[in-house]
User: Fold this.
Amino acid sequence: MSSSPTPPSDPTTLNRLYGRAKGHKLRAGQQALVDDFLPQVAVPEGPLDARTLFGDDRPLEFEIGFGAGEHLAYQAGLHPDHGFIGCEPFVNGVVGALMHIRDEGLSNVRIHMGDALDALSRLPDGSLDRVYLLHPDPWPKARHAKRRMMNPGPLDMIAAKLKPGGEFRFGTDHPIYCRWAMMQMDKRRDFIWQAKNAQDFLVRPDDWPQTRYERKARTVFGHDVWYFRYIRV
Ligand SMILES: C[S@@+](CC[C@H](N)C(=O)[O-])C[C@H]1O[C@@H](n2cnc3c(N)ncnc32)[C@H](O)[C@@H]1O
Assistant:
């Protein structure tokens, strides 16, 4: 494992976030969670590794844009001996994750309220067992395609931070994004797609819980959802 972090070559910056610019105003209890509880579980400034975050050398998993935190909390509960780093810039989503952490007693989660690529860039190369990118903002217009997470810059960074044999999970309900992502991944030699047949990407794996976002995509909008699992070479 190398200890020199790879800097972002094409970061997805937060001033280019898709859709919402501002969330709902926080209720008093939610604000108290942000003020009092977030500092206890927040990712610190500076270089990061398992020891800095959790005090030991446990395996690390990383979620980009966790939304309301349901998937992050599920995985953290499933792997209590792993450390989880969840990143999400929207405070309303962060509040959701904080409620899961508190209510489910999850001591193995750290939260970065901001750009995932900032936290990712501060980890040592080859340090992550898994990276999750579930329903990234679609940026459906062709002229905005460079802002998608599934682009060479962010993907180079994800590849650099995963251990050989580590897993990258990506899911989307957006057909334009799905096609784009498959084209991006098809060009790469550093990931091996795990699908052997269509069922492998059309059926949600047992350990891949449905988030509220995904349920709405299926039930309200009638979307299909595609599930991709790649192994880092
Ligand atoms: C469509 S939502 C999906 C949320 C969640 N992954 C799910 O499946 O329910 C995309 C999320 O990515 C977050 N996001 C966008 N750009 C990001 C970035 N650079 N770093 C971290 N999160 C980001 C957004 O704030 C938003 O919550």
Notes: The mean pLDDT is 93. The first strand starts at residue 60 and ends at 64.
